[in-house]
Design a protein that fits this description.
The chain is an alpha+beta fold and 240 residues long. It has one domain: 3-Layer(aba) Sandwich (Rossmann fold), CATH 3.40.50. It is 19% helix and 28% strand. A hairpin with a 5-residue loop joins strand 9 and strand 10. The structure holds zinc ion. Zinc ion binds next to loops.
Length: 240
């Protein structure tokens, strides 16, 4: 332990340069970093799927919920004039701006955008933190234009097992835990975000049942693009 060091040269789908992908820890999901942009594998997999399915993404109207300030988020913000983003803040009315941060607040379960607003809707490791994911998938489908897509990452930790709800809200609004509470880092909340869903590959069927958008799970392994790790599936839900 401590002496692990991995390095592989390749081309990064995000910064589009010849780079070294290096890791000092064996958990590549968080540690296989691009020397050019600092991105991690799931971000490079996401960019691969966006660029392959929407090669003119720079000209599209794109919205990202809860960007992480790195990788795909900063690339889209820099290269797409039609990019916008929002975060969810508990104490800010959806559609309004946070008084200090100046950033727009949106609740994925109840978006304030008009129908058919966006070509692409991006989320990165967000959909495992939603209490009513069926509402969120329906809302995202509503605000997408026909021909558009919700392209996102979420750790499909249950793989071929059925998805499970880790936590839900009681009718009184209290959190009911079905598993030991687990939290992931949240860029706008130091408490972190509660994981509400253990998703599996059946997420695609779940989205189709609830939002009627045909959905595909992409599993990519391409070390020359720095795409190698567990739980880096990309899901794309296409609005027809
Ligand atoms: Zn890069």
């Amino acid at each position: 332990m401590g002496d692990f060091r991995f390095s592989h040269g390749g081309t990064c789908p995000i910064c589009e340069r010849d780079v070294e992908f290096t890791a000092k820890f064996t958990w590549f999901r968080d540690h296989l970093l691009c020397s050019g942009c600092g991105s991690i594998p799931r971000e490079r997999a996401l960019m691969r799927v966006i660029a392959e399915h929407y090669p003119d993404y720079r000209k599209l109207v794109v919205h990202e919920s809860s960007p992480c300030g790195r990788g795909v988020s900063t690339k889209l913000a820099r290269e797409c004039p039609g990019y916008s983003y929002s975060h969810y803040f508990e104490n800010v009315p959806p559609g309004e701006r946070h008084p200090e941060r100046g950033e727009r607040c949106e609740n994925l379960e109840s978006l304030t955008f008009a129908d058919n607003t966006f070509d692409l809707f991006i989320t990165q490791d967000v959909m495992e933190h939603i209490f009513h994911p069926e509402k969120a998938f329906r809302e995202i489908a509503r605000v997408l234009r026909p021909g558009g897509a919700h392209i996102f990452t979420a750790p499909l930790v249950n793989k071929a097992k059925p998805s499970e709800r880790r936590a839900e809200l009681s009718p009184a609004g209290d959190i009911v835990h079905h598993f030991e509470p687990e939290y992931h880092g949240n860029p706008v909340d130091p408490k972190g975000s509660l994981v509400t869903m253990n998703w599996g590959y059946d997420i695609a069927a779940h989205i189709y049942e609830t939002a009627k958008t045909p959905s595909v799970v992409f599993q990519i392994d391409d070390l020359d693009a720095g795409i190698r790790a567990e739980y880096i599936e990309v899901v794309a839900s296409f609005k027809r």
